[in-house]
Amino acid sequence: MVFWRDYFHSSKGSEVFKMSNRPFDLLNDAVDKEVLVVLKGNNQVRGVLKAFDIHMNLHLENASQIVDGEIKTKYGAVLVRGDSVVLVSP
User: What is the pTM of this model?
Assistant: First the structure.
């Protein structure tokens, strides 16, 4: 879950949690780590995030297509177009 505001108010009380990360900060923390990328059409790719840009184009190394939780195809290095990205999960 990504929070777009600085503070999140809990629905279970009056607790307030400071959210220090912005969306691109979270991606920055994921560089050089393995991520799962869900694409439009429910396609999934897993690989090591090497770089990204403001359009959320992603450069992945050791990338593999994931189908039903299993590796279907190994690609190596890939560039994922940002407008096809639904979510990125570390």
Answer: 0.75
Instruction: Give the per-residue pLDDT at 2.
Output: 42
C-alpha dist (Å) from residue 26 to 11, 20, 41, 52, 90: 24, 10, 24, 12, 9
pLDDT of residue 19: 54
Q: Taking a C-beta distance cutoff of 8 angstroms, is the pair 44, 36 a contact?
A: yes
Pick the CATH number of 31-89 from 3.40.630.30, 2.60.120.330, 2.30.30.100, 2.30.40.10: 2.30.30.100
pLDDT at residue 87 in the model: 94
Instruction: Single out the residue of 26, 49, 25, 29 nearest to residue 37, CA to CA.
Output: 49
